[in-house]
Amino acid sequence: MAVTRCVCFRRSFAELVPQARSAGWTTLPQLAAGTGCGTGCGACRPYLERMLATGATSFAVARPGQEPQPARAEAWDMA
Ligand code: FES
Prior knowledge:
With about 80 residues, this protein is of the alpha+beta class. The protein has one domain. Helix content is about 35%, strand content about 10%. It contains 3 helices and 4 strands; from the N terminus they run βββαααβ. Strand 2 and strand 3 form a beta hairpin. The longest helix is centred in the N-terminal third of the chain and has 11 residues. It starts with a strand and ends in a 19-residue tail after the last strand. It binds FE2/S2 (inorganic) cluster. The site of FE2/S2 (inorganic) cluster (FES) has 11 residues, from loops.
């Protein structure tokens, strides 16, 4: 299972990366102000921060306090 989106605002990280780059957003507060992402339950916040820092759009589920790491591609991603 991979984390690929902000569930509360129904926005995928794959959509958010180009939007953030186009808008010049490099921080979570900037992204949150522009999209709302990260301002609901907050569960996506560590993933959004890593997304902004690395451009990765799919992450393994991280334990609390653990930095999210990019997810390995699943078989259905290879099509
Ligand atoms: S999943 Fe992003 S704010 Fe809830």
